[in-house]
Amino acid sequence: MLPGSLRAGSWNSTDPESRRQSSPASQLLRHVRLWPLDTETTRLYGAVYLELRRQGRVLSQVDIMLAALARQHKLIVLTTDRDFEALADLAVENWAV
Question: pTM value?
Answer without folding.
Answer: 0.73
